[in-house]
Design brief:
The termini are far apart. The strands form two sheets. Strands 1-2 form a two-stranded antiparallel sheet. Helix 1 (22-41) runs antiparallel to helix 2 (46-65). The chain has helices at 22-41, 46-65, 73-85, and strands spanning 15-17, 20-21, 107-112, 124-130. The longest helix has 20 residues, at 22-41. The chain is extended and about 80 Å long. It is of the alpha+beta class. A hairpin with a 2-residue loop joins strand 1 and strand 2 (20-21). The protein has a domain at 15-85.
Length: 133
């Protein structure tokens, strides 16, 4: 009979180097490259280039290492962007029909499109059908 180990740590990322995950290492590598580029390639005076490189390093350190509520910071950024993008108030109102004193009859309108080369650029309206239930 073969014995198989059941994984119990499915939601834990594997550590790659010095206790950091691959995501954290790649974020740090890209950030270090951006900081080096800011310090060496920007057409600004040296003190301003060093300050820009320092800002990039601090931002990358926060992004790679800080995990509020055990979630990566980019997850929180996506949550914040979604919060800003989605409306905060949803209102449902039933549609009111103007009956004009008569019983409501559902109507259906049929639109038949005609090609532009046929002489008309707007759809031709056929007659409106009224049906009763």
């Amino acid at each position: 009979m073969n014995r198989h180990e059941i994984p119990t740590h499915l939601n834990v990322e594997d550590k790659a180097f010095a206790g950091l995950t691959m995501r954290q290492l790649m974020t740090a590598a890209v950030g270090l490259g951006l900081a080096y580029g800011a310090a060496s390639e920007l057409p600004l005076p040296m003190p301003i280039r060093l300050m820009a490189a320092g800002v990039v390093l601090v931002a990358v350190a926060l992004l790679a290492l800080w995990r509020p509520a055990e979630r990566p910071l980019e997850d929180w950024a996506f949550v914040l962007l979604r919060y800003w993008a989605v409306p905060r108030v949803a209102v449902w109102r039933p549609r009111r029909l103007d009956l004009g004193g008569a019983e409501a009859k559902p109507t259906y309108e049929v639109l038949v499109p005609e090609p532009a080369w046929a002489g008309r650029s707007t759809p031709k309206r056929e007659e409106t059908y009224a049906t009763q239930r």
